[in-house]
## 1
Amino acid sequence: MKRTWTALLFGALAVGASAQSFDLEMNGTDPKQFGEPRKETLVTEDMEKEGIAPVSVEFAVQLKKPIPLGCQYIYRITNTSDRTVVLKGFTVPDAKFNEKLKPGASVDLLTNTMNRGGSTKEEKKERGCIDCAPSINIQEIEVK
C-alpha cells in the first residue's frame, strides 16, 4: 500500500517540476502533540535566477483523531524568515493549500488521510495510521 501511495505522490510531483516534498515525524511519545519541527530552507530556480534569497520555514504534524478509513492530521507551517511568503502545495493529493505567511506567522492545515493501513482502532488512537507517512509538498513559492 505504501508503494502505491509513493507512486501516486511521485506522479503528482512530476507534474510540478519544482515541487519539494518533506516527510514529517510524529511525536513519538504523544502523537496528539506536534512532532519535532522540521526546519527547511525553500528556494526555486526562479528565485535563484532573480537573486531572491531562500526563505526558512518549519513544518510539524500531529494526530487530531482517527476517522473510519484513516486519520485526521494537523500540519503546521511556520514562516521563520524575515519576509512574507506565499506557499502553494498539498498535504495529500486532494488537500491543496495556498497560504500567505508574514514573518513569524503560522498556519494549521487539517487533512484527512484515507488509508486503512491495517491499524486497529486502538492503534490509531495511540499513534495514528501506521502507513500514512505524513508529508507536505510545496509546489510554488512566492516571496514578497
## 2
Amino acid sequence: MSEIDNYLKQVRKGMRFVSGSNKTSFCGELGAQFEHRGSLPQENPVALGKAMRQVYGIGMFYRIILIVTAFPLGVLSTPMIGSWFPSVPVNLFLLLSLIWVFLAAYYGGRWSGLFTGLSAAVPRIIALILFTIGLDFINQFFDSFEVSEGDIGLVLITSLLLPIVGFFAGGRIRRPD
C-alpha cells in the first residue's frame, strides 16, 4: 500500500457512519488532490475524517437505526410500567433514552436528534394518555392505582424535553481558529 492509501484508510476510519457514497467521493477527491500536489498534508487523517463526518452527517441507515431503537427505550422509560413490573429500572431507561438522543444528535445532527427524541417521547405520551383514560378500567381488576398531577407533569416535561434537547444538542461543532 502506498502512503496515499494508508492516509485515506485513516480518513475513512474517522468518517465512520458516513454513507458509503459520500465517503468514497470525498476520499477520491482527496486522493486525486494528493497525487496532483505530490505530497501528503501534515494534519491528522482521523481528525480530518471526523470533521468531514460533521459536514456530511451520518448515513440514512444509521439514522433509521437510532430512531427505531429509541422507541423501545421510550416504552421502557414510562413510569406506569413500574406499577406492574417493579423490577424495571424506569429512570435508568429514561437516562439511556437521553444518552441515545445525545448520541443521535452528535453523530447525525439536529434533525436526527429531533426525530430520535420524538421516537423516545411518543410512547411515553401515548402511555400516559392510555393510563389516565383507562384508569377506571384498570382499578376494577387491580388495587387502586392513581396518577397524580405531579406524575402527569413530570412525564410530559421529560417527554417534551427529549426532542428539544436532541434538536439543540445537534448543532455543528464550531472550533475556534
